[in-house]
Structure formats: C-alpha cells, structure tokens
Amino acid sequence: MPNNPKEYKYSKDHEWLRIEDDGTTTVGITTYAVEHLGDMVFVDLNEAGGTIKQNDSAGTLESVKAAADLFTPIGGEIIARNDAVIDDPAALNQDAFAAWLIKVRPDNLEADLASLMSSDEYDDYEASQ
Description:
Elements: E1 9-10, E2 15-19, E3 25-29, H1 31-37, E4 40-45, E5 51-52, E6 57-63, E7 67-71, E8 76-81, H2 83-87, H3 91-94, E9 102-106, H4 109-113, H5 119-128
Antiparallel strand pairs: 1-2, 2-3, 3-9, 4-6, 5-8, 6-7, 8-9
C-alpha cells in the first residue's frame, strides 16, 4: 500500500509538491518513481535563480535502468536546488520524500495546484499504473 504523505500534492509524472509555511514549495519525486527507475546514479538540476513554467523540465535523473526528466509541478522562480542529492543520487533510493530536488517560489500557486492530485487521488493513480 502506498505511503505517500497526505499533505503533499502529486503530478501524473510522479513528482511531489510540499507547500512550505513561507509560501514557497519543495519538489521531489515519489517512491513509486524511484522504485521504477532503480538505483539512481546521476542527478542534474537547474540552477537556482532561473524561472520555470509548470511541467517544464527542471533537470535530469539517471538510474542504472533509464534517464528521466524532472518535470516541475509548479511554475515560478527556482530558489534552491539540493546539491546533496546531486553529490549523492542514491539518497533518492534511501528516502524519496526526504531527498527533495528543488525549491520554487510559485508564480500562480492556486492555478498550478488545480492540476495536481491529492494523496488519495495519487494513491489510486499509482495503483492503476
């Protein structure tokens, strides 16, 4: 049974979004995504300071099985990236929800959230994959 945090939002591309107390957002990939990609060996993320639109690529994730883009579930300014995960991609395999990838100051949070799933909706979506 999925163990996805209830307070997060989720995309169909298996990214998660956490809204922080200051209104910024933190983005990562789900355990489901990590399990299907396999052992992570390389992570490349966009630099902080740039802007990104919802569903644009914010980086590349490579595993022993495949390479995949990180599609950001939110648009706005990238205010941080997790260099620790770039240095140690295996951190994603250890805990996908602790190993966040980027932080974004959203341009239009409410509109972007409308296209994302709740935890329960994502659990159902994940089960159908």
